[in-house]
Amino acid sequence: MLNPKRSLQSLLRQNYAVTKAYSQLRWRWKMRSHFPPNNPLIIYQMGKVGSTTIVESLRRSVPERAIFHVHFLSPEGIAIDDNFYRSHLSRIGAIHDHLLESWYLREQLDKQTQAEKYQVVTLVREPIARNISAFFQTLEYQFGYDIRARSRNLESDDFVRELSELFFQEDERHERPLTWFDLELKEVFGVDVFSTEFDRDRGYQIYHSPKAEVLVLKLESLEKCAQSAFQDFLGLNEFTLAKSNVGEGKKYKTLYRRFLHLVEIPEDYIDRMYDSRYTRYFYSDEEIKALRDKWKLK
User: Fold this and answer.
1) What spatial distance separates the first Cα and last Cα of the chain, rounded to whole Å?
2) Which helix or strand (DSSP H or E) is residue 67 part of?
3) What is the pTM assigned to this prediction?
């Protein structure tokens, strides 16, 4: 006998157009049923910069507000995400909420009036660690890599060579932390973070534009600055970080740790990441030297 639920799941994995329509319908119902319609708070950042920790913490601190969590809001960025799910749907199995929320918020932004102003939180992370973390997050469904099988044979160096070849393949993944603020935040909300100073010692900065107020947090400073940052930005007198989505706590944690321990990062890649405007804006010379030394010791 046919199982209707399994039949639907099978259809959704095979047909992206059906999956997209079905997912958007379900998500809109969820929006109407569960989210307050006004005063949204948008967590908007490139992937793998610690944003899930911020999302969970804010949901506890301000449960009365609708909190959205997205990676892209520009039409070009949303198209990249859309194509990614289209290409890898059979492995991923479903469209994740962050893309559904991107579609919804893009519609709202297109209707935004001059009187409306969004509150936005975004984060930065040093680009090499961020890129490796993002690579492992998508390793199975983007590259078809069998994590469980490979994790049984970590004594051999073959897996490091294999993963390094995959990681250093040239594509836009490596440039994302270096270009995200221009292609997304500046394009969507008119906030050019590079036009003013960032307080590196404090670890956060608040920016303003006619469309948004934006809090930018540095992941490496999050433990020491989160409470004062959210007091300044949202007026929260008490704010506690909730740990979540840490790479070392995932099923690829053993593989991830071993790779970090053994991988050799080419010097030209280190230069490319750490000589960038992005890194030099958010990180001091002393911080960059420490990061270079860390990866050169590999």
Assistant:
1) 56
2) strand 67-70
3) 0.91
Among the listed residues 123, 131, 146, the one whose alpha carbon sits nearest the alpha carbon of residue 42: 123
Q: Which residue has the tokens 């020491």?
A: 224
Asked whether residue 157 carries a pLDDT value surpassing 90, the answer given is no
> What are the φ and ψ backbone dihedral angles of 22, each rounded to 5 degrees?
-65, -45
Phi, psi of 101 (to 5 degrees): -70, -35
The 10s digit of each residue's pLDDT in 50-106 is 999 999 999 999 998 889 999 999 999 999 999 999 999 988 888 999 999 999 999
Tokens of 222: 């999050």
**Local structure of 170: helix, strand or coil:** coil
* Whole-number Å distance between alpha carbons of 31 and 226: 28
Query: C-alpha dihedral over 223, 228, 230, 236, to 10 degrees?
Result: 120
Sequence letter at residue 116: E
Question: Can you state the percent helix, strand and coil of the chain, rounding each to 5?
Answer: 60, 10, 30
Measured CA distances, 160 to 37, 165, 170, 256, 279 (Å): 48, 8, 18, 10, 27
Q: Are 122 and 45 in contact (CB under 8 A)?
A: yes
